[in-house]
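Sequence, please.
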């Protein structure tokens, strides 16, 4: 009997679909190829990065031990984590805040395990330490455009790659379970300066590597210096030469009698012609404090933080006079670099192209000045001294989180009033009467 033409020996010899299995094999091969092609920055991250010439190793973990790095990252991440992110709707008159389910995800809790403040702090600190931050977008199904939550991933557990056609994908390695691939439409990815299309270099371990390495070396030297390991404070001299055993005996005897805080002020009794000479601080030792302070400025310069905002008040700042102007400069030149990136990334991943909704951080609280200046600005906005107002009472009360007031939606308008005639100037009626005789 002749075999049917539709019979396929390859199809029945293996389980599943032949086409699907071939597609899976191609994807696995492309995945393995992308894993082998590491960039220079990825290779540096794998070996934890080296410090300066002969210096300590600089990585994200060791950089956290530098107080200036910790303070800068905590300041930037903490400031952004406290900003509200309302949902706005575009209208003919401008924009207005609307009630939307995404507000809870971005301002209260993105998932069951994290609060919104922790989520934003993790995202910002990941970008500063590793160059990129990632958050997976959760949806009810593959075909749904609705968002039900966000799951942040550690940058070391996410590997962007491109397939043979050049399409971008993200390979995620979870704490539990097997690897899986995420489509770029379902991944929030905010890179840093130096982005090459896949990853970005770490600002701390790349741009500030030398400064962080020097700061680590300075901290180690200071630790040894103040624990009497780098240089002794004095020397015991003898009129003649001493053997090694005699010198060790004198040293151990002195430590037994005078070592420790409780024995620090006991009088010393020297015999046999022994004498004590105080050792002066060398020029290199006296410069170690200046070097440490300079590294604080270097680290703050790379991360865009004014030194005075992390406790470094040795020199004056060029950000303007007064704390108010300095705070506004920090928001304008440092925070907005991250805020705009997050706003654009979330807007293009959450909303369709023609959607009238959008997200934006509210900077009103962080840009607010002192109470006197704020009240003066609001008084001018309401209208005063013959000037028309450009804000209503209810708009001002809403900005101050106060309930609206009846008849408070009208702008103050100023009507032109004719000036009163001077006492010596005759009116038009008087002039007409005088002309009539």
């Amino acid at each position: 009997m002749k075999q049917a033409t539709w019979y396929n020996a390859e199809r029945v010899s293996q389980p599943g679909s032949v086409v699907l299995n071939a597609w899976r094999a191609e994807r696995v091969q492309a995945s393995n190829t992308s894993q082998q092609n590491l960039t220079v920055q990825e290779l540096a991250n794998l070996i934890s990065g080296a410090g300066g010439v002969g210096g300590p190793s600089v990585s994200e973990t060791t950089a956290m031990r530098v107080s200036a790095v910790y303070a800068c990252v905590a300041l930037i991440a903490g400031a952004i984590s406290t900003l509200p992110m309302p949902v706005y709707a575009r209208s003919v008159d401008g924009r207005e805040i609307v009630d939307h389910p995404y507000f809870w995800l971005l301002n209260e809790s993105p998932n069951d395990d994290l609060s919104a403040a922790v989520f934003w702090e993790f995202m910002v600190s990941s970008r500063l330490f590793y160059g990129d931050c990632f958050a997976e977008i959760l949806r009810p199904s593959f075909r749904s455009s609705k968002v039900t939550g966000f799951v942040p991933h550690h940058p070391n557990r996410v590997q962007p790659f491109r397939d043979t056609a050049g399409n971008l994908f993200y390979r995620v390695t979870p704490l539990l379970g097997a690897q899986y691939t995420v489509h770029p439409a379902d991944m929030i990815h905010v890179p840093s300066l130096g982005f090459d299309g896949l990853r970005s270099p770490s600002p701390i371990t790349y741009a500030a590597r030398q400064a962080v390495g020097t700061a680590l070396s300075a901290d180690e030297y200071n630790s040894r210096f103040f624990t009497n390991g780098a240089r002794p404070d004095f020397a015991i001299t003898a009129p003649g030469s001493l053997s090694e055993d005699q010198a060790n005996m004198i040293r151990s005897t002195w430590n037994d009698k005078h070592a420790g805080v409780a024995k620090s002020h006991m009088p010393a009794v020297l015999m046999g012609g022994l004498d004590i000479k105080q050792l002066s601080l060398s020029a290199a030792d006296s410069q170690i404090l200046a070097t440490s302070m300079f590294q604080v400025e270097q680290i703050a310069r790379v991360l865009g933080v004014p030194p005075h905002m992390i406790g470094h008040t040795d020199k004056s700042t060029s950000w303007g006079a007064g704390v108010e102007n300095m705070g506004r400069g920090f928001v304008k030149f440092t925070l907005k670099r991250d805020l705009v990136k997050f706003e654009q990334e979330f807007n293009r991943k959450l909303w369709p192209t023609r959607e009238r909704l959008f997200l934006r951080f509210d900077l009103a609280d962080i840009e607010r000045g002192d109470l006197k200046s704020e009240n003066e600005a609001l008084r001018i906005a309401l209208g005063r001294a013959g000037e028309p107002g450009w804000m209503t009472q209810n708009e001002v009360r809403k900005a101050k989180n106060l309930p609206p007031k009846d008849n408070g939606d009208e702008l103050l308008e100023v009507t032109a009033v004719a000036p009163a005639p001077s006492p010596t100037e005759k009116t038009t009626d008087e002039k007409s009467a005088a002309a009539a005789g």
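The first helix runs from residue 9 to 13.
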